[in-house]
Structures are given as C-alpha cells and as structure tokens.
Amino acid sequence: MEIKRGVIAGIIAGVLIMLSSLLFYLPYFESIGMEKNTNLFYFLLGMGILVVLSPFVVNSITQTRVEREKDEMFLEFSRSLVETVESGTPISKGIINMRNKSFGSLSPHIEKLANQIELGIPVKDALEVFAHDTKSRTIMRAITLIREAEKTGGNISTILESVAASVSEIEKLRAERRAAISAIVVEGYIIFFVFIIIIIVMQLQIIPMAAEIANIGSEGTDLPGSSGIGFGRSGNEDSINPAEFSRAFLALLIAQGFFAGLIIGKLSEGNIKAGIKHSFIMVAMAVLISIGASVILGK
C-alpha cells in the first residue's frame, strides 16, 4: 500500500512540474506577459520526468535489497536447520519449530512453509512452493539440490550441511566481488562527471564561439584562409545553430548515462536490474547539470 501511495504521489508531483514547464514555452503564456525560456522549459520537463520515474526506481532498489536479504537469511535458516536435524529432530518438525524465529524478509515464506508441512503437505512439495515464492535463484538451486538428494535416499543432515556451505560460499564470493568492484563503480561515476563537464564546455563555450565565427563568415566577411568556402557564402544555409547541438549533446549524455549505469550494475551486483538505480542517478546528473548550466548562464 505504501509503495502504491509513493508511486501515485510521484506521478502527481511529476505531472505538476511538467505542466508548470509549459508556462515558459507555450505562445499563449508569452502573449500574456510570460517570458519564453526554452532552457527553463526543458529543465522543468526533465525534472518532472525524473520525479515520475523516481518511485519506480526506488521500488526496484527496494526489491533488489529484499532479494539480497532473502539469500543472506536463507543461509541462517539452513544453518539453524542443520543444527536441528543433527540433534535428532526430523526436518519437518525442525522447520515447524523455527516458524516463529526472525529471518527478516524470509520470515513470511518460512511461516508459510511450516504451515503447509503442519497441514500434512509433503516436505519436498512444500519446499518447492517455498523456493518458487521467494523468487531467488540461489534458494531455488539449493531447494532443488535438497529435493533431488532426498529422492536418492541421501543423509538429510549431510545434504543440508552441504547446501549451507554452498550458500555461504556464494554469499562470500558476492561480498568479495562488491568490495573489489566498488573502486571501479566510483571511477565510473567520476569519468561520467568529467564527460558531462567536457560536454557542457563544448555546448556553452566552443559551439557558440564557432557559430559566431561561421555566422560572421556567412555574411560575407573575408576571413583569412576561408577562401570563400563555408564562411563566404551568402545566406544562412551554412550557419551553425547552437540549440541543435545542445539537444544532440543532451541526448548523448542521457544515452551514455543510461547504458553506463546498466553496466555498473551488472559488474557490481551481477544483475542488470540492479543497474537501474545507477542509470537513474547518471541520467538525473546529466539532465540537471547540463540544462541547469544553460539556465544559469542564460545560453
């Protein structure tokens, strides 16, 4: 319910910001005294789009965090179950006894698993439902291993211990990868920020300067070395429009930020879905810094 409220609030706020941007663009408002400001229009429009998308990005981040917590809590659940089975308690009774223990976001699934077993559903079927409900690849692989080993008549205590060791090793490798890749993530953000600065300098300084030189040449002014090519033609067909370059640069920054964020997420978390938050941050940086600089400098 809280997530739905956040999504609705984000959409309403974003739409209001986008509607307010029309005050600086539509001819009607210009006729009643509002000054037309294209840069401010695009700035508010971009802000509105980012606000609309922000609840969905936050929801994706929350889901990624919950999935990671489920994998970590499943490790604790497996270890507790190993200790219970080694003490001579049947696996079904052990699961029921752990129903009231706290396992974070995994607790509702464990409670459902215990209730199914208590109702007489076979353990292997209940475990299959449990793995499907968690939607975790790590848990699904572990439960599949337990079910297949149980079919072949293996020692359940040894099986659970092996599964717990396997899950522990997977979580250890993930933690090591996140620690090793953290420096690369920071470098990725720094490189992208430098890229934004370079684009802004080109957009606000170099392109207007080149446009001014080209426009002077197009009016017939003789420039050294121009030889009447590109600069000495009459008319405006060879003139440079900085606004066109600004839109192209903004599209370039957005594309770069989006795909760079997905790559960072894949490297750091092993999942492209985890890169959505990085893409959102980078695209927001690109829009706010690029258009914001144009609004502040009035170019």
Polypeptide structure, described:
With 299 residues, the protein is an all-alpha fold. The protein has ten helices and no strands. Helix 8 packs parallel to helix 10. 26% of the residues are buried.
List its salient traits.
mainly alpha, 299 residues, elongated, 10 helices, 0% strand
What's this model, at a glance?
With 299 residues, the chain is an all-alpha fold. The protein has 10 helices and no strands.
Write the layout of secondary structure elements.
Layout: H1 2-21, H2 27-31, H3 38-86, H4 91-97, H5 107-118, H6 123-134, H7 137-151, H8 156-218, H9 242-269, H10 276-297
What's the β-strand tally? 0
The proportion of strand residues reads under 5%
Mean of all residue-level pLDDT scores: 77
State the share of residues found in helices, binned by percent: over 70%
Query: Structural class of the helices, strands and pairings?
Result: mainly alpha
Radius of gyration: 29 Å
How far apart, in Å, are the first and last alpha carbons? 44 Å
| Main β-sheet description | none
Question: What's the overall geometry?
Answer: elongated
Can you write the helix and strand succession as a string? Answer: HHHHHHHHHH
Number of helices: 10
List unreliable stretches of 5+ residues.
221-236
